[in-house]
Design a protein that fits this description.
The complex is a heterodimer.
Chain A lengths: L2 E5 L2 E3 L5 E8 L8 E6 L5 E7 L6 E3 L7 E6 L4 E6 L8 E8 L6 E4 L3 E5 L2
Parallel strand pairs in A: 2-11
Antiparallel strand pairs in A: 1-3, 3-8, 4-5, 4-9, 5-6, 7-8, 9-10, 9-11
Chain B lengths: L2 E5 L2 E4 L5 E8 L3 E2 L4 E2 L1 E6 L6 E5 L3 E2 L7 E6 L2 E6 L8 E7 L6 E2 L3 E5 L1
Parallel strand pairs in B: 2-13
Antiparallel strand pairs in B: 1-3, 3-10, 4-5, 6-7, 6-11, 7-8, 9-10, 11-12, 11-13
Classes of the chains: A mainly beta, B mainly beta.
Chain lengths: 119, 113
Amino acid sequence: QEQLVESGGGVVQPGRSLRLSCAASGFTFSTYGIHWVRQAPGKGLEWVAGISYDGSNKYYADSVKGRFTISRDNSKNTLYLQMNSLRPEDTAVYFCAKDSSGYSPFELWGRGTLVTVSS
Amino acid sequence: DIVMTQSPDSLAVSLGERATINCKSSPSVLYSSNNRNYLAWYQQKPGQPPKLLIYWASTRESGVPDRFSGSGSGTDFTLTISSLQAEDVAVYYCQQYYSFPYTFGQGTKLEIK
C-alpha cells in the first residue's frame, strides 16, 4: 500500500529552524516527483516546494524562496524540507504529496505534520 | 503566477440535487502541443488530507464515484456532482499544474441544505 508519512513538526520560535521529513513506502520512491503543500489553520492549500524524481530540479513558492530547502534521499525513501528563518505566517499543517510524472496532479498525500511558529 | 479563482466560496445543496463548482484560471492552463488542460480537482474533508478527484480537467481518478465529473477548457472549468450524497460534504479545490509555482483555488465549501 502506497503511503507517505510526515514527521518533524512542532512549536518553534520565530527566526529558528526546523526540518520536516516525509517517509515513503509501497512504491518506487526514486521515480516520482514529490511536493510540500501547506495549509494554515482554517485556510486553503498553498503549494510550497517540489522536487523532481532524481533531485535535479527544485521549485519553490515565492513566500519561502531563500528560506526553505527541499531535498530527497532516494536511498532512504525520504523527502525533506529544511525551514530556516521561520515566521509566524509559516504556521500550518505541512503535507507531502506525490505526483504521477513530471507536470502532473498529486495522486497521493500524507496526513500532514503541524508546524507552529510562535514565541 | 497563474491565479486560480473559484466560485462560489460556499454552496448548500439538497441531498440528491446537483452541485456545481466553478474555477477560472488566469492565464490559460491549456497546453496547445498536447491539447491537455493541466487542471485538477481535490476533495478535502475535515481533519483529512486532500484527495484527488479529477485530473486533466475531466479524467476521473480511479475509485472516484461517477457522480463526480469535470469539464471545461482553457480558462474556465467546472466540477459537477450530479446527485449530492451526505458523504460529499467537504471543501473542494481546483489546482493548476501547468507551471510552477503550482497554485490552488481558494476552495469551495459544500454543505447540505
